[in-house]
């Protein structure tokens, strides 16, 4: 779960720039939903270069910024129709990058030389997907990656030679391994499996020994390896919530399968899976998110360095993206709730921030809406944390409100810049986000309280939040809409079926219309794996009544408020047939429906034009039904 | 009297021609309307069937487009319990579904299961087979497991297997399911039978492809559901929303062996679609039935046309009557001019004779001179009178004179008139009786005229010896009532209204000369002009009473 959160934070949080004169105008929709031109900033181990990806018309290439001499900066790859998907510094001289083709489901790996910009292929076009294994280190001129070529449903570990030798499978996945961890030596001693309702940690003392299970947990309990303790092959830093409610930082002996000691635990929230330095092989800090993210430092030098950076930033939050081995160049991205921020690198030598790129440059000159942490009590006494974003106008009472439950449910909303929230706030709506029970980050009690509560207690938490907003005078109770993506969309559609008295309209992007369909995405050959979903959602065969009761598609005839539905044609969690029938049935009752089908999109839309079109239609839909500007 | 060539013309021929034309039009209109209606009803008969078709097939379409696709909602997770609930619901709501067969299946690469439809590594294995029927309103469930009887249901399975497998074979990561694909793949529609396979997600189809091609090394089994519905089209309830058009509507096999003699029947039919295609809807009505319906619809139209015809005839009659009245009026005016000429002629010839006599007499004695003077004066007065009458009458008729209303003290007003009349008509016995309290508001000059006229009339239309006139003037709260009662020749009852008409004169010996038929018309005009009313009552040879009524002015 923490992995998701990490990715989510990266996607959602953005950067600063000047606090110049801000406009409070209606911001064009494109300004909110354009993916950045430059991304993936990575500093070379020796701190001399920063490499990044930049988009061209149909391609995406690696560019190199020479930090000592700007004139020597150059473009490293020149693909016109292909996109470099990811890369990392193999050494100070070489970058290794991958090209994933989403259309044909193939992957290729290349090496590019920093000096000569010569590109050579090390993995010819291979069917399937590739995953980097972290930390990916070059050992005897080869790297280790995971590929699902043999069976699309799981990955095997391969050694890819940089010299052109064919790839070699080094770990054959029995079908349940999902993660591997390389030690300082570059060998894999540790693997993580999730073959079922249970997760386990596997260990082997050397590469020729078989993996042995050292820890096995119910899926509600978990241990998340972060990295090896310096020069050890048996001790690791890990986050663990075994025998405790919240993830704590522990030192763990993988050879014995025992927790050695607890290093830190926060009383209210889980720790984040960050703060380990691969280069230094030590924990620099632990991060945790209460209302906003905070850090506890273990390394005094790093703490001073971070404090120095924070001084430069005047109130902005920041995240470290990358750093060189000597900690002389730190790439960060800054953000606040009202500013998408920018990407900088901090040079320890001159103690200054150097801007690399603005995020959402077209939003820099506009005033954005502030996001305030809030908390309320649910009907059964749970404290629910959330965020409330007020429209830029400054009005705080009797507002039209968009209730926006997050996707998941096993995720959480965090404080920071969120383009869709800012878009709605700019259009004059207050945006209400809440971490309903079942959200992660608040410990496993709170998380598991959401089990089998789809449409149940989870939905109640959302409604309790709405009541709280109305009671506190923030919301105009005749102008409340509910909108969300994925699970949030499901909650909106569920509300349209059963709670139409509370909401004026409901909007869903990739919302789950049918839980039977949603369940189909659980691979059926992992029979035991289903157990987890049986516990979390329910069993579609034995509890088909429950599934029927909580699947919106069965209750289209009860919908009496206008519905907005955007559906990707390749969404694995939803079928177009369900969405079509759902919409048809609502229309038969003469209830207005706005329905957009994006044939080539999956659950998360990739094409900016499609995202913009969806939000444009959403804006119109809300304008008509909530009567705002 | 001389016959004038400008006599009034009544062209009866024209009217007769018109009546004839209208009558012909009437007959033609009725005839055309009738044939139009016959055709209309026949058209309706063959056109309205599509509505009957739509309405009757509504439940079937609902089953096909709404209820059957609901199977896909379960994404293969239907079990015996939920499947039974679904089938029961279908059987209850759609009586034309005779039987529901539920294939609870696995798409698997587990070849140990052996039984099923197999292609490459993909085995389509029916785990369970349930047959649902309604017997006397109660659901019966038959569960078939491997055995002999399952064979009769395996054809359905194999057909579906061939279809889906050849599609799965072609699936690649970019494949999209079009609506046409959905219909081709997941529905199988045969006469009397619909089968439907739950529509899996595209990613499932890709998984099946991998299972089929052997790319998945381990055992993988996916739940899939298929339903087959056996349909008896004859149980579809027909909704005859046009009972006036169709006597009988039936669902019949397309190839029907029993042919009844349909000569006296109007028949039309609609072919049924898809699973019902071996049946048709046959709609028939007997010729008499249609005839009756045609008449029913035709009747109001005939009535309408007749009404118009009648109105035209009435108009013709009115025109005829108008012409007749105008003719009479023309004659009256013609008579009037004749009379008037005569009337003017007498004094003029008297004056002329007097003039001649005066001119030719050598010497005029004083007596003669006085006589001629008197004669000339009298005749001039007559002429003057005549002209005044004519003039004032046209003025009054055109409301050209102004009323000069004054308060009239009736006794004071009447006395000089009566005295003058006694002097004028010495041979008439005139008595009067006046009882009034208030003054009458009227124009004294005009009122005087009325009195004079009525007194003159009384004198004129009484036989010598019985010339008597009694005048009574009385007043009650609201009216002054003035009566002129004579003992003259009287007026026949049917002439009461006519005597007040202009130029109307009752033909009688008393009427030879000195009357132009304006007097009473004049009185009536004036009286009404002043706000009063004049009526007459009379008895022939007994006497006549004219009654003037004026409102009391308050």
Automatic annotation (TrEMBL), chain A:
Presence of the UniProt keyword Hydrolase in the record: yes
SUPFAM superfamilies referenced in this protein's UniProt entry, alphabetically: alpha/beta-Hydrolases, DPP6 N-terminal domain-like
Annotated Peptidase S9 prolyl oligopeptidase catalytic domain residues: 415-628
Pfam families in UniProt: Peptidase_S9
Keywords of this entry: Hydrolase
A single BP term in Gene Ontology: proteolysis
Gene3D superfamilies assigned to the protein according to its UniProt record, in alphabetical order: alpha/beta hydrolase, TolB, C-terminal domain
UniProt name for this protein: S9 family peptidase
Lineage: Bacteria, Pseudomonadati, Bacteroidota, Sphingobacteriia, Sphingobacteriales
UniProtKB/TrEMBL annotation, chain B:
Family annotation (SMART domains): HATPase_c, HisKA
Transmembrane segments: 12-33, 298-320
Molecular function GO terms recorded: phosphorelay sensor kinase activity
Domain Histidine kinase: from-to ranges: 339-554
Enzyme class label: transferase
UniProt keyword Kinase present: yes
InterPro entries: HATPase_C_sf, HATPase_dom, His_kinase_dom, HisK_dim/P_dom, HisK_dim/P_sf, Sensor_HK_Regulatory, Sig_transdc_His_kin-like_C
Catalysed reaction equations from the record: ATP + protein L-histidine = ADP + protein N-phospho-L-histidine
A Pfam family: HATPase_c
Record's keyword annotation contains Amino-acid biosynthesis: no
Record EC number: 2.7.13.3
Alphabetized UniProt keyword annotations: Kinase, Membrane, Phosphoprotein, Transferase, Transmembrane, Transmembrane helix, Two-component regulatory system
Protein name (Swiss-Prot/TrEMBL): histidine kinase
Source organism (scientific name): Rhinopithecimicrobium faecis
């Amino acid at each position: 779960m923490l992995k998701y959160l990490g990715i989510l934070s990266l996607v959602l949080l953005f950067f600063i720039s000047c606090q110049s004169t801000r406009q409070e105008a209606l911001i064009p929709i494109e300004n909110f939903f354009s993916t950045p031109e430059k991304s993936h900033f990575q500093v070379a181990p020796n701190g001399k270069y920063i490499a990044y990806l930049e988009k061209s018309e149909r391609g995406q290439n690696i560019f190199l910024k020479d930090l000592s001499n700007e004139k020597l900066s150059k473009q490293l790859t020149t693909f016109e129709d292909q996109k470099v998907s990811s890369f990392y510094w193999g050494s100070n001289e070489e970058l290794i990058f991958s090209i994933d083709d989403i259309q044909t489901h193939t992957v290729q790996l290349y090496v590019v030389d920093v000096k000569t910009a010569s590109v050579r292929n090390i993995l010819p076009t291979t069917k399937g997907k590739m995953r980097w294994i972290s930390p990916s280190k070059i050992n005897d001129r080869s790297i280790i990656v995971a590929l699902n070529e043999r069976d699309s449903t799981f990955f095997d570990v391969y050694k890819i030679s940089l010299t052109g030798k064919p790839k070699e499978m080094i770990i054959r996945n029995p079908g349940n391994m999902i993660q591997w961890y390389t030690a300082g030596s570059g060998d894999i001693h540790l693997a993580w499996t999730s073959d079922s309702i249970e997760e386990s940690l596997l260990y082997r003392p050397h590469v020729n020994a078989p993996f042995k299970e050292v820890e096995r947990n119910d899926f509600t309990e978990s241990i998340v390896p972060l990295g090896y303790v310096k020069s050890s092959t048996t001790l690791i830093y890990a986050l663990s919530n075994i025998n405790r409610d919240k993830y704590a930082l522990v030192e763990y002996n993988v050879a014995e399968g025992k927790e050695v000691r607890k290093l830190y635990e926060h009383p209210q929230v889980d720790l984040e899976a960050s703060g380990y330095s691969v280069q230094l092989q030590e924990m620099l800090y632990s991060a945790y998110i209460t209302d906003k993210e905070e850090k506890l430092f273990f390394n005094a030098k790093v703490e001073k360095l971070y404090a120095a950076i924070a001084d430069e930033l005047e109130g902005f939050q920041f995240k470290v993206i990358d750093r060189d081995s000597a900690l002389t160049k730190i790439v960060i991205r800054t953000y606040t709730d009202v500013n998408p921020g920018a990407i900088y690198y901090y040079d320890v030598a001159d103690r200054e921030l150097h801007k690399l790129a603005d995020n959402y440059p077209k939003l820099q000159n506009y005033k954005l809406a502030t996001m305030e942490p809030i908390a309320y009590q649910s009907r059964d006494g749970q404290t629910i944390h959330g965020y409330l974003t007020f429209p830029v106008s400054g009005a705080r009472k009797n507002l039209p409100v968009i209730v926006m439950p997050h996707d998941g449910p096993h995720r959480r909303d965090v404080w920071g810049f969120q383009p869709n929230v800012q878009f709605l706030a700019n259009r004059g709506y207050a945006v209400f986000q809440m971490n309903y029970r079942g959200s992660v980050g608040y410990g496993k009690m709170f998380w598991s309280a959401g089990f089998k509560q789809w449409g149940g207690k989870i939905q109640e938490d959302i409604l309790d939040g709405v009541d709280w907003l109305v009671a506190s005078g923030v919301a105009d109770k005749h102008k409340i809409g509910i909108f969300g993506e994925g699970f949030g969309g499901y909650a909106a559609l569920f509300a349209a079926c059963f709670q139409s008295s509370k909401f004026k309209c409901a909007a869903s992007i990739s919302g789950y219309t049918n839980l039977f369909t949603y369940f189909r995405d659980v691979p059926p050959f992992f029979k035991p794996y289903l157990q987890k979903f049986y516990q979390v959602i329910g069993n579609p065969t034995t509890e088909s009544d429950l599934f029927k009761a909580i699947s919106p598609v069965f209750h289209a005839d009860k919908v009496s408020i206008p519905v907005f539905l955007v559906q990707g044609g390749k969404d694995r969690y939803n079928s177009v047939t369900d969405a079509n029938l759902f919409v048809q049935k609502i229309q038969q009752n003469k209830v207005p429906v706005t329905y957009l089908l994006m044939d080539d999109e999956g659950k998360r839309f990739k094409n900016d034009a499609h995202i913009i079109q969806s939000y444009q239609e959403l804006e119109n839909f809300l304008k008509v039904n909530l009567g705002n500007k | 009297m001389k016959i004038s060539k400008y006599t009034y013309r009544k062209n009866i021929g024209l009217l007769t021609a018109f009546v004839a034309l209208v009558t012909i039009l009437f007959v033609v209109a009725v005839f055309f309307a009738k044939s139009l209606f016959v055709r209309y009803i026949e058209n309706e008969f063959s056109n309205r069937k599509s509505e009957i078709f739509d309405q009757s097939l509504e439940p079937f379409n609902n089953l096909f487009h709404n209820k059957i696709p609901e199977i896909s909602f379960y994404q293969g997770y239907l079990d015996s319990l939920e499947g039974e609930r679904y089938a029961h619901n279908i059987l209850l709501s759609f009586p034309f579904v005779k039987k529901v067969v539920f294939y609870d299946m696995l798409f698997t690469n587990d070849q140990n299961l052996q039984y099923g439809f197999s292609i490459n590594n993909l085995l389509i294995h029916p785990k369970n087979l349930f047959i649902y029927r309604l017997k006397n309103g109660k659901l019966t469930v038959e569960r078939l497991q491997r055995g002999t009887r399952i064979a009769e249901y395996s054809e359905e399975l194999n057909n579906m297997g061939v279809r889906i497998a050849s599609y799965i074979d072609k699936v690649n990561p970019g494949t999209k399911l079009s609506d046409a694909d959905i219909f081709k793949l997941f529905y199988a529609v045969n006469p009397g039978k619909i089968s439907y396979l739950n529509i899996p997600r595209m990613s499932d189809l890709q998984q099946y492809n991998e299972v089929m091609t052997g790319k998945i090394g381990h055992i993988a089994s996916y739940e899939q559901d298929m339903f087959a519905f056996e349909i008896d089209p004859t149980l579809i309830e027909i909704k005859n929303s046009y009972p006036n058009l169709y006597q009988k509507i039936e669902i019949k096999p397309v190839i029907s062996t029993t042919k009844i003699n349909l000569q006296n029947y109007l028949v039309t039919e609609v072919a049924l679609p898809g699973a019902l295609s071996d049946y048709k809807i046959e709609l028939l009505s007997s010729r008499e039935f249609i005839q009756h319906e045609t008449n029913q619809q035709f009747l109001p139209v005939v009535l309408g046309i007749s009404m118009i015809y009648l109105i035209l005839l009435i108009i013709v009659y009115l025109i005829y009557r108008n012409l007749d009245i105008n003719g009479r009026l023309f004659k009256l005016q013609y008579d009037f001019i004749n009379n008037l000429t005569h009337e003017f002629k007498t004094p003029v010839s008297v004056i002329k004779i007097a003039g001649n006599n005066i001119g030719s007499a050598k010497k005029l004695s004083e007596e003669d001179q006085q006589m001629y003077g008197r004669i000339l004066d009298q005749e001039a007065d007559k002429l003057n009178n005549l002209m005044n009458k004519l003039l004032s009458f046209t003025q009054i008729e055109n409301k050209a004179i102004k009323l000069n209303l004054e308060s009239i003290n009736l006794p004071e007003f009447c006395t000089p008139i009566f005295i003058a009349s006694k002097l004028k008509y010495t041979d008439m016995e005139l008595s009067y009786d006046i009882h009034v309290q208030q003054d009458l508001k009227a124009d004294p000059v005009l009122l005087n005229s009325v009195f004079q006229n009525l007194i003159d009339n009384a004198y004129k239309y009484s036989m010598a010896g019985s010339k008597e006139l009694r005048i009574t003037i009385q007043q009650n709260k609201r009216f002054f009532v003035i009566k002129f009662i004579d003992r003259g020749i009287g007026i026949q009852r049917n002439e009461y209204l006519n005597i007040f008409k202009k130029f109307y004169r009752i033909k009688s010996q008393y009427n030879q000369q000195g009357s132009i038929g304006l007097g009473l018309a004049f009185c009536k005009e004036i009286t009404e002009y002043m706000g009063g009313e004049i009526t007459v009552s009379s008895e022939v040879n007994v006497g006549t009473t004219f009654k003037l009524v004026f409102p009391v002015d308050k």
